Amino acid sequence: MTTATEVASNMHAPMRTCVGCRAVRPQAELLRSKLFHVGTDESADKEQVLPDQSVRTCAKRHGLRASSGRSAYVCPARACMERAARRGGFARAFARKTPPVDPAALWSAHGEVLAGMIDLLNRSGGTAAAPRVQRLAALATAMRAAVGRVS
């Protein structure tokens, strides 16, 4: 008889490609960004690349709406974020021209989103949230470790 742990370890993890370094990694180990329209105007200059989790829950309140179902995944390394912004990785992921991406602002937004999600899950106090908190904490730790390695 197999245990739940054995079943979980044999399950397939979705794989995604980093738009900065083009490395293929498990989706849970990458930062996810989306292209959002700011306001009601449809012009391209009103678009912004933001962390997906930060705006998905409160998009209507801030006048944001996702431009498509596409997402961009980036390694939790600042060098990958800068490389993706410099070499057009975000435009390639969204399959359209994107506004200039400020890697420093996007990096700090991802850090704030991770801290907020970890705090929210810890306050919920449920044991079911523990694995997700561990995954998010590992991602936040990887981001902090990568701060010094800017290319």
UniProtKB/TrEMBL annotation:
Residues 16-100 form the YlxR domain. It holds the Pfam family YlxR. PANTHER family: BLL0784 PROTEIN, YLXR DOMAIN-CONTAINING PROTEIN. This is DUF448 domain-containing protein. The lineage of its organism: Bacteria, Pseudomonadati, Myxococcota, Polyangia, Nannocystales.
